[in-house]
Design goal:
The structure is a single chain. By secondary structure, the chain is mainly alpha-helical. The two termini are 24 Å apart. The protein has helices spanning 2-14, 16-25, 30-51, 63-89, 94-101, 104-114, 122-140, 147-167, 176-197, 208-235, 237-243, 246-259, 265-283. It is 72% helix and 0% strand. The protein is globular and about 45 Å long. The model is unreliable at 286-306 (pLDDT under 50). Belongs to the EamA transporter family. Residues 293-306 have a biased composition (Basic and acidic residues). This is DMT family transporter.
């Protein structure tokens, strides 16, 4: 069941961009999408913790600093990463965006080497070159390249990389569901504060928009995260990380089926290079920011969300 749960999680995360596209079509703004998503997800996670108090258990007191860091990860890192991702989603297709975001495992490896947390081997070097080539092919193969969208998407991957490296310092101090609830709460707090400063968010979109927002919060956030944690217990982080490469595959397939978005042969080749490099990095024993931290942001074991 472990691999199956990891694949279910990847499929749920892979549907995120598709749900976002449909929410935009219903008139939902990015600010409303993010605020509702994180508020609802945080509420659901706290309900889970209330019903299952053993999930709050830890063998030692984490201390106020660790709790504050967890909230800060959401308030600064996750909120910024998601904001960049959904801003990019308004400008470009879901499939290439998902592949651009999935460069974050490579960025984590580069950052870990530069920070002295890991060393660069020949195998990892080849994986980095392969991923870079794949990303260039994804961008070059776009029929209607949107430079701002691509830049926002890559910015999301960079922010997520920083988020993972910081989260790796606290992830072992908190139970995963509690950490996720704190991260979601922090993100919801930042977005609520931003809404208050900017005059609020517009919730006058079509009723179907609420359905897509519920899908984003329940399916692509809470369910995706909880199934990942359950699968991770049986597979280990490296296997879970490799299985998570199913996520952009799901995004690409769903985008073709529901949105009429198709990758060109050049982009398909680039995507294959990006995903294969992630698998190589994991089997090579690359840096593993703990799976409890990640979107993606609460689950990517490539440390390891977005």
């Amino acid at each position: 069941m472990g691999p199956a749960l990891c694949l279910v999680s990847a499929a749920c995360f892979g549907a995120l961009a598709i749900f976002g596209k449909f929410a935009y079509e219903a008139g939902v703004s990015p600010s409303a999408l993010l605020l509702v998503r994180f508020t609802l997800a945080a509420a659901l996670l706290w309900v889970v913790l209330l019903v299952r108090p053993e999930l709050r258990w830890t063998d030692r007191s984490p201390g106020g600093r660790v709790l504050a860091t967890a909230v800060g990860l959401g308030a600064i890192g996750y909120a910024a990463q998601a904001s960049l991702f959904f801003a990019a989603l308004r400008l470009m297709d879901a499939s290439p965006l998902s592949l651009i975001l999935y460069t974050f495992p490579v960025l984590v490896t580069v950052a870990a080497v530069l920070l002295g947390r890991d060393r660069l081997t020949a195998r990892r070097g080849i994986a980095l070159v392969t991923a870079s080539t794949g990303t260039l092919l994804v961008l070059a193969g776009a029929g209607s390249f949107h430079p701002v969208g691509a830049l926002l998407g890559f910015g999301s991957a960079v922010v997520y990389t920083v988020y993972i490296l910081v989260a790796d310092t606290v992830v072992h101090r908190l139970p995963p569901v509690l950490l996720s609830a704190l991260v979601m709460t922090g993100a919801a707090g930042t977005l609520a504060a931003r809404a208050a400063v900017t005059g609020g968010v517009d919730l006058s979109f079509r009723p179907v928009g609420w359905f897509w927002l519920a899908c984003i919060a329940v399916v692509s956030t809470v369910t995706a995260m909880l199934t990942f944690f359950a699968g991770l217990r049986h597979t280990g982080p490296s296997t879970a990380a490799i299985l998570s490469t199913f996520e952009p595959v799901v995004t690409t397939a769903l985008a073709a089926l529901t949105l009429g978005e198709f990758l060109t042969p050049l982009q398909l080749l680039g995507g294959a290079l990006v995903l294969s490099s992630v698998a190589v990095l994991q089997t090579a024993g690359g840096p593993q920011p703990s799976p409890e931290t990640g979107e993606r942001a609460v689950r990517a074991p490539v440390e390891h969300v977005a």
